[in-house]
Design brief:
By secondary structure, the chain is an alpha+beta fold. The protein contains 3 helices and 4 strands.
């Protein structure tokens, strides 16, 4: 049976305030010294199956998604937060293929400017697929 869900409806797995060190930046000192990064993620999915089964296999596992975000960020060694954000969306989409309507990623660098809490980007991508 095809999902009759309104395309504007979705459920969301939230990862908020994931903090870890990684190499990110374009300046020479940023290429050798790790700095703190904060990632917030929203993974748009459907809770229809897990609402009936209570089986973790029927949802996006947030612990696995958080681990994937950290490992990709550390391995990527991005020069820009924009590039890192796009990489994170791609790996989350690939890993949870068929389970996501879309992903919103926020990548923040909290220790860059002394007079702000953080600087960064937010990217949202919606995928064309039925789940």
């Amino acid at each position: 049976m095809q999902n009759e869900r309104n395309p504007k409806e979705h459920d969301t797995v939230i990862i908020n305030g994931l903090v870890f060190p990684c190499i990110i930046g374009m300046l020479p000192e940023e290429r050798v010294k790790e700095q703190r990064v904060i990632v917030n993620a929203e993974l748009y999915t459907s809770f229809d199956r897990i609402s009936e089964s209570d089986d973790i296999a029927h949802t996006v596992n947030y612990a696995e998604a958080a681990e994937l975000i950290v490992s990709e960020s550390v391995e990527c060694r991005a020069e820009t937060v924009e590039y890192l954000g796009s990489r994170l969306i791609k790996v989350l989409k690939d890993r949870f293929a068929g389970s996501l309507f879309g992903v919103s990623i926020e990548v923040l660098k909290p220790d860059i400017l002394s007079n702000v809490d953080s600087v960064g980007i937010r990217m949202t991508r919606m995928f064309k697929q039925d789940i």
